[in-house]
Design goal:
Layout: E1 10-14, H1 17-28, E2 31-38, E3 41-48, E4 55-60, H2 62-68, E5 74-78, H3 81-94, E6 101-103, E7 108-114, E8 120-125
Parallel strand pairs: 1-4, 5-8
Antiparallel strand pairs: 2-3, 3-4, 6-7, 7-8
Length: 135
């Protein structure tokens, strides 16, 4: 079988590129990597985290963005539960509503964080539960 090396990026449809870009920068700390202009109009943006491990693209497509509202296509990994707790504190400080930290199948998840189009972004620990098993 030929090798795979992870996801290159995730692309989301958005109803407003600037609004989404600003939200992902302010909330998740992503930085603009590339902007996609078509006929002088900003149609998309690629963003990365400071370590280059998370890469997200946002593309103008209001109808598809509306169709994804309430769905959770993104699960970003965080190393430990302590990191997840730090994220919850950060979101609280930013006034970003979320569903808190829940026990997941193998670790913990911070659910209920929604981008400006209502698309849910979840944060999952890579760290497993103390006993190393699913719950």
């Amino acid at each position: 079988m030929p090798a795979l090396s992870g996801f290159h990026h995730v692309k989301l449809p958005v109803s407003d590129v600037v609004r989404s870009r600003d939200w992902y920068q302010a909330v998740l700390g992503l930085a603009v990597d590339v902007e996609f202009m078509e006929d002088g109009v900003l149609m998309g943006v690629a963003l990365r985290d400071p370590t280059g491990t998370v890469s997200l693209a946002a593309r103008l497509d209001p109808q598809r963005a509306a169709a994804l509202a309430g769905f959770d296509p993104i699960a970003v990994g965080v190393p430990t539960r302590a990191d997840l707790e730090a994220w919850a504190s950060r979101l609280d400080a930013l006034g970003q509503p979320h569903g808190g930290i829940l026990s997941g199948h193998q670790g913990w998840v911070l659910a209920g964080l929604h981008d400006p189009d209502g698309i849910e972004v979840r944060l999952y620990t890579i760290e497993r539960h103390d006993d190393g098993t699913a719950t």
